[in-house]
Amino acid sequence: MTDPMIVPGTANDIDLLLQQLIAGSIGVQQQLIVQLSDLGDEGLHALMEFLLKRRETKATWIDGNAYQVLYKSNAPKAKEFLLSYFPEGIVPLKSECGIDYNPLQQLLAVQDFQAADRLTLQKMCELAGPTAVQRKWLYFTEVENFPITDLQTINHLWLVHSQGKFGFSVQREIWLGLSKNWENFWSKIGWKNGNNWTRYPNEFTWDLSAPKGHLPLSNQLRGVRVIASLFSHPAWTNAK
């Protein structure tokens, strides 16, 4: 059952929508963000208020949705707001190695998932060191030594900017739910169809219509051992 929506015509109506947005279920929040995005400056202002009220909590994909509306807006007030309160983006870009994840956040904020996928691999190679950067792929032993903070940052970026649909933790949860059966896993997330592997890049789906867990393409990092190391990484059991 969907909460009743109102047709705003006054500032009081906008305030009511904001209160519904703050208190509503995820489904209602998603609908209201879309509705507010169509209401011009007043709607954008309500989204700003919403993000400010949630600023001290860990960002979810609902925050990502609201942020993306503001990020894509041409309104000067929206740009000024983001620069003042979220200069790095909606996800804090923590790194133990001094790696800059801002370009990745920018790509994900506009849902350029194909470019973000390529950059994700590049950033993971940076984590592994100069040799991995040069070869452009990873050994499973390098993945084992990834800093927890960095892996969580990359994963959080994908989660927040994909409505919770993409990310390593999402893939791991699906894999565990399939009793760690790799063949079933490949098919479930759309990396394999029968005996045929999905061909990169044209056969992959680079938008939110993709199966859950479809991205990022960690199978492109080289075989089962790499993704197995990724899924067994302590980042997922030490989540903050």
How would you describe this protein?
Pfam families: GUN4 (PF05419), GUN4_N (PF16416). InterPro entries: ARM-type_fold (IPR016024), GUN4-like (IPR008629), GUN4-like_sf (IPR037215), GUN4_N (IPR032192). This is GUN4 domain-containing protein. Residues 95-234 form the GUN4-like domain. By secondary structure, the chain is mainly α. It folds into 2 domains: 11-85, Alpha Horseshoe (Serine Threonine Protein Phosphatase 5, Tetratricopeptide repeat), CATH 1.25.40.620; 102-231, Arc Repressor Mutant, subunit A (Orthogonal Bundle), CATH 1.10.10.1770. 56% of the residues lie in helices and 2% in strands. The chain has a two-stranded antiparallel sheet. Strand 1 and strand 2 (196-197) form a beta hairpin. The two termini are 33 Å apart.
- Number of structurally distinct domains: 2
The CATH superfamily of the largest domain is: Gun4-like
Using the coordinates above, name the CATH class of the largest domain: Mainly Alpha
How much strand content do the residues show? under 5%
Which fold name corresponds to the CATH topology of the largest domain?
A: Arc Repressor Mutant, subunit A
Rg for CA atoms? 19 Å
How large is the count of helical segments? 13
Determine the mean pLDDT.
92
Q: Rough shape?
A: globular
Uncertain stretches of 5 or more adjacent residues: 1-8
Distance between the termini: 33 Å
Q: Portion of residues in helices?
A: 55-70%
| Alpha-beta classification | mainly alpha
GO molecular function, one term: tetrapyrrole binding
Domain GUN4 N-terminal ARM-like repeat: 5-87
Domain GUN4-like: 95-234
Protein name: GUN4 domain-containing protein
